[in-house]
Amino acid sequence: MSIAPEAFTFVRDLVRRESAIVLDPGKEYLVESRLTPLARHAGEGDVDAYVRSLQVRHDPVRSRQVVEALTTNETSWFRDADPFTALRTQVLPELAKARTNRQLRVWCAACSSGQEPYSVVMTALDTPAVAGWRLDVVATDLNEEILQRARRGTYSQLEVNRGLPATTLVKHFTREGASWRISPTVSAPVTFRPLNLMRPFPPMGTFDAVFLRNVLIYFDLPTKRDILRRVRQVLAPDGYLFLGAAEMTMGVDDSWQRMPAGRSSVYRIRGEER
Amino acid sequence: MRALVVDDSRAMRRIVARILTGLGYEVAEAGDGQQALEVLASGAKPDLACIDWNMPVMDGLTFVVKVRENPQWRDITLMMVTTESEHSQIVRALAAGAHEYLIKPFTPDSLREKLDLLGLLPSEVAS
Amino acid sequence: MSLLPETSPIDDELVRAVVDQVWESLLGAEVVPWYGEDPVAPPALQAQVTLTGDWNGLVRLGCAEGAAEGIAAAMLMAGADEELPPEDVHDAVGEVVNVVGGNVKGALLGDTALGLPRVLTGPDHDTRTVAAVPVSRCVLDWHGLPVTVEVFTHENTKECRS
After folding, report:
1. Given CB atoms, is C92 within the 8 Å cutoff of chain B?
2. Is the same domain home to B88 and B126?
3. CA–CA separation, C8 vs A65, rounded Å?
4. Chain segment A206-229, per-residue pLDDT in tens
5. Is A263 a catalytic residue?
6. Are A115 and A77 in contact (CB under 8 A)?
7. Domain harbouring B118, CATH code
8. Domains of chain A and CATH, by start
9. What would you measure as the largest C-alpha separation in chain A, in angstroms?
10. Which domains are seen in chain C, by residue range?
11. Exposed, middle or buried by CB within 10 Å (0-12, 13-18, 19+), for C40?
12. Residue of chain B nearest A4, judged by CA positions
């Protein structure tokens, strides 16, 4: 059973109006899975009934909840999978050829509860070209509370179910009560620290790769442009920038060049801007 | 895409089947490993089997071993969907031939992400 | 070996963490603690699953039929107009206790097997747990009805800590 086409159209129009985020056809599944908890809370039998109730009577609170449910980023391991495939098969091997000091520095600029930086480390550990290299991952977030959680490195059953291959789970995690703890091999290369992307960056050195995924969508155009400009200053001239699947630099900061990487894309600083 | 959902709980079969149907799968169901083998023997060729561990008659781990023994069924991707959640149990299931492992309780998003990892997400819903 | 008494890795905090996860993802509901009077009378319905091996015990969910119907409806996302037959209700709460039991077992070290869930109702259902020691008990509020989740252990349980 899937969501009714009328219900999907209604939700798509609502989300586009309120957030400028466009839900393409084919995202019916996303709408159904994200709105199911809301429908349950509201005592409606299913998402269709829930959406119908919204259509019949305008309810600003419920409308906002729908928009939030569809635009809030949930953190999962190897989120979207493709960027990490690109990291393993393309970006790390390229960097391995270019770096003679056998050291790599990566910045995760909106690391939330830590899944992204830990996924970067697990990917590097899985990449023969950089085996034995020194890896330094700086993971930042605005929210100190979420950084505390990230530092602890323990995740609930529900969290390890999210996008983490079973082989990776058994390799890098141990069971601890109702939770799973990430291994010291994976956590040791990661340093967590608070950082506000809107403010000038503190001294952090230069990075070979920067993950700035699904965070620019929250900023207006001048702020996006300013952040991308400052990211260029901390990225090595031959470094790589990863953005979210729905984000791009085009029209925001044209100093970046988009490069296809497997099923996704990475960005590099254009030659003349280096 | 076709899936076989093997679980002794009707409620759980309904939950998993509903998610898979929403993703564009055609779903068959079986209440234990023996029934699931009969479904396969009758000629069904699912792309994916979602398999509970603890079931009467034949448990999910035995079913995985039986499927792996038969070369005719080697194209079926096997994913355990079970409340068995010890590190050692996951290792056992993977060693027996399961490709993925989803621990109950799970959310629809997590099932979808597992299918994405397995390359079994119908392309029109891949995000 | 320590001379201090070993504590079980299963305690209220662990069970509550498991129940939170099950309620959130399987039932789409938040856990609400029960603030009413403690339900002392045996519940009309009991769903239970046994753990046997290095750790021996029982995970049990007890509630009124009405609460079980509500839990099943939430789990199956049944519409308000859909009346679930009792066997579907029992199957659903059996699966809830199965998932709780599996995750409780996951916190144990050693080799312990999870049984198949059983649902007991009616006048003949056995509310006693023979020679069992309570390990954990929480009472939750399901839309105004108490739901107890209890873990018992048997005497012959070997100590194993996680």
Report:
1. yes
2. yes
3. 42
4. 999 999 987 887 677 888 899 999
5. no
6. yes
7. 3.40.50.2300
8. 5-71 (1.10.155.10), 82-273 (3.40.50.150)
9. 65
10. 12-154 (3.40.1550.10)
11. exposed
12. B22
The better pLDDT of the pair B5, A63 is held by B5
Q: Which domain holds residue B19?
A: 1-31
- At B21-70, the pLDDT tens digits run 999 999 999 999 999 999 999 999 999 999 999 999 999 999 999 999 99
State yes or no: cis peptide before B105, omega within 30 of 0.
yes
Are the Cβ atoms of B112 and A174 closer than 8 angstroms? no
Q: Which position among A79, A141, A208, A213 bears the catalytic label?
A: A141
For A74-104, the pLDDT digits (tens) are 567 776 678 899 999 999 999 999 999 999 9
Q: Which of B26, B27, B84, B101 to mutate to test the interface with A (most CBs of A within 10 A)?
A: B101
Query: Measuring CA to CA, which residue among B116, B90, B121 is closest to residue B103?
Result: B90
* Listed range (A23-37, C44-58, C124-138) with the worst mean pLDDT: C124-138
Residue B79 and residue B17 share a domain: no
Of A37-41, A146-150, C69-73, which has the strongest mean pLDDT?
A: C69-73
Give, in degrees to the nearest 5, the angle at Cα A201 between A106 and A218. 85
Asked if residue B127 has pLDDT above 60, the reply is no
Please indicate whether, in this complex, the C-beta atoms of A29 and B109 are within 8 angstroms of each other.
no
Of A26, A32, A165, the CB nearest to B117: A165
- Determine whether A40 is an active site residue: no
**Higher-scoring residue by pLDDT: A246, C87:** C87
Helix axes of B87-96 and B60-69: crossing angle, nearest 10 degrees: 20
> Does any domain span residue B94?
yes
Q: How far is CA B9 from CA B29, B30, B69, C88, in A?
A: 11, 10, 26, 9
